[in-house]
Design brief:
single chain, 113 residues
């Protein structure tokens, strides 16, 4: 392989890496955080339509629920697997109080995800 062919190949690899980086930056709900293994498994699980988490404080429960909901709502290719007989028309995210959901919306949904 000549130097110019090798150089062109390296440029193509760099271009592909830059494209991959741009795609990841455009999907912060999938690639924006370093998740615990249990969070990744929880988000990727598509067998259960109702998802509940019980764990300690400040461990990322609400964040991974938010990420899962955004992922399910914005990835139509998952819908036939999750809802084989119909397409979803709405998604619900329940929180204990109006104040708590308002805080979550302003501090996480709008700024992080």
């Amino acid at each position: 392989m000549s130097i110019t062919e090798e150089y062109k190949k390296k440029l193509e690899q760099v271009a592909l890496l830059e494209q991959k980086k741009r795609i990841k930056e455009g999907l912060p709900h999938l690639h924006g955080l370093n998740l615990y293994k249990w969070q990744r498994r929880y988000i990727d699980e598509t067998q259960n339509k109702v998802n509940l988490i019980c764990a300690g404080n400040q461990i990322g429960k609400s964040s991974c629920n938010i990420l899962k909901l955004i992922h399910w709502a914005t990835e139509p290719s998952l819908w036939p697997k999750i809802w084989p007989n119909r397409r979803p028309r709405q998604f619900w995210f329940l929180m204990p109080t109006k104040d708590l959901i308002t805080t979550e919306l302003r501090t996480k949904w709008e700024t992080e995800f």
